Amino acid sequence: MSETTGQKKSVARKRVRRSSIPIKARKNGRVPEPVIGKELSIRERLFASEYFANGFNGLQAAIAAGYSQNGAGQRANELLNRSEVKNVLSQMAENRLKRLSVDADWIIAETVDLYKKAKESDSYGPAANLLKMLGQEAGVFSEKKEVAHTVKIEALLEDAANNIIEVNSPPAQ
What is the pTM of this model? Predict the structure, then answer.
């Protein structure tokens, strides 16, 4: 039997599953990080990404994520106070620090190195600031101040009670 014009033979096609990794990323050998915050909507995840990209500016992040400009500030505040969003942001920050290999020891080592270079170049102002930062980290400079009281609270209460009685008592005739 021959096919009539306009009719084509249907061929069953095998469904091919495609990789979710973009072609450009596969070629470069970089695989993107898995999506975190799956409990958030796509717009909320976009807000979290934009929050980092916009230098932690919630208003700009909300606008970039597609929220209206009129309510973006309020929406950003609501999102930043949600525990799910906070968890995603902290996990994103942690992932960023891991990627950059930045930790407390590295920061302290770099601060010490900068302090030495500033001192060698007679830049005493920056050197003093760096030294103060290192001292605070080491606990040398504490913000707590202790005040020793020599007056007992009982004596203060007794004096206050006597003053009240004197003020409220009728005048002597």
Answer: 0.44
Q: Are 134 and 112 in contact (CB under 8 A)?
A: yes
How many structural domains comprise the chain?
2
- Indicate the residue among 82, 100, 118 that finishes a domain: 100
User: Could you identify the residue written with the tokens 């040398």?
Assistant: 140
Of 41, 86, 46, 38, the closest CA to residue 62 belongs to: 46
Kindly report, residue by residue over 155-172, the tens digit of the pLDDT.
778 877 777 655 555 666
Q: Say if residue 96 is in the same domain as residue 114.
A: no
Instruction: Say what the pLDDT of residue 22 is.
Output: 47
Within a domain: residue 151? no
Domain extent for 122: 104-138
Helices (H) and strands (E) in the chain, counts: 8, 0
How far, in Å, CA of 134 to CA of 141, rounded? 10
In the structure encoding, which two tokens stand for residue 158, read together? 């007794």
CA dist., res. 39 & res. 41, Å (int): 7
**Co-location of 70 and 28 in the same domain:** yes
Phi-psi region of 168 (alpha: psi -120 to 50; beta: other; left: phi over 0): alpha
Secondary structure of residue 27 in the 3-state scheme: helix
For the stretch 93-146, pLDDT in tens is 888 878 877 778 888 888 899 989 988 999 889 888 888 888 888 877 766 667
